[in-house]
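[Discussion] Sanity-checking designs against the backbone

I'm trying to build intuition for which residues belong where. Below is a structure token string of 236 positions. I'd appreciate it if someone posts a full sequence so I can compare it with mine line by line.
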């Protein structure tokens, strides 16, 4: 079994290099062994040190980090901050990738560090039916993309990011947003951390949406650290 080295950031960057220059959507998610995507309402209770390190490296490799507003609220997201272990991973690019937050309701406080301290202007992806006053508030502190009318058309959202040159796309969920990417046939890769715990309960799985056509996946690699498994699957 391959192992994550304690300081093996270079190896991780190689193991998770984006496959080319074409647009590519990778998801990074964690689940307990019995499938729970949250513990006590958050994903943090499932993670571990290596999981956090991998999340950080995947951010360093990405041009943009796409996340649903539910996750931003539940996890108290701040802006992506560069880490010293990124080394030269951001060479020739902005020091940190922007977050692109998907939301219709726009219940987002634009006076928080998520907006005010972002090294690269935060992006808000919304739709035509979003409350106008909140759109205007977001526009003061973020780049606002409108994709879709009643709700965000997730394919159009990804295309809009691609048009801005943000082709190495990483999504950190949450489960409702991820289910839409997968259902739209837009998910190219799933990086799944399997956390060594059983939780039962009513937590959602990492995809939370209506049943969809099955998407066959190919296992690219498995890494192990401290009883955690790190699975990298790509779409067949
Ligand atoms: N296990 C993991 O790896 C993992 C990863 C991430 C999150 N989580 C956990 O998952 C939970 C959150 O789950 P979730 O599925 O509700 O999160 P989510 O997908 O991040 O957020 C759902 C929200 O995103 C917005 N949204 C999603 N799709 C949209 C669309 N097509 N059009 C417009 N807005 C859209 C809406 O925001 P508005 O309401 O603002 O319109 C919606 O309420 C949290 O407990 C979090 O900790 C787990």
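Best answer:
Here's mine. Compare freely.
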């Amino acid at each position: 079994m391959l192992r994550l080295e304690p300081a093996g950031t270079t190896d991780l960057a190689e193991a998770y290099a984006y496959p080319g220059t074409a647009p590519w959507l990778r998801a990074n998610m964690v689940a307990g062994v019995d499938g729970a995507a949250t513990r006590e309402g958050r994903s943090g209770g499932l993670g571990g040190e290596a999981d956090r390190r991998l999340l950080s490296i995947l951010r360093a490799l990405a041009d943009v980090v796409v996340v649903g507003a539910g996750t931003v609220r539940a996890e108290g997201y701040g802006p992506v901050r560069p880490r010293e272990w990124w080394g030269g991973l951001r060479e020739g690019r902005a020091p940190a990738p922007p977050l692109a937050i998907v939301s219709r309701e726009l219940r987002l406080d634009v006076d928080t560090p998520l907006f005010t301290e972002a090294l690269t202007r935060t992006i808000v992806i919304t739709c035509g039916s979003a409350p106008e006053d909140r759109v205007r508030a977001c526009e003061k502190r973020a780049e606002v993309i409108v994709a879709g009318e009643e709700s965000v058309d997730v394919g159009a959202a990804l295309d809009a990011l691609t048009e801005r040159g943000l082709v190495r796309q990483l999504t950190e969920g949450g489960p409702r947003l991820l289910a839409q990417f997968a259902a739209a046939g837009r998910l190219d890769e799933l990086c799944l951390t399997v956390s060594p715990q059983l939780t039962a309960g009513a937590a959602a799985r990492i995809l939370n949406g209506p049943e969809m056509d099955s998407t066959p996946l190919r296992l690219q690699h498995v890494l192990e650290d401290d009883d955690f498994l790190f699975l990298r699957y790509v779409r067949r």
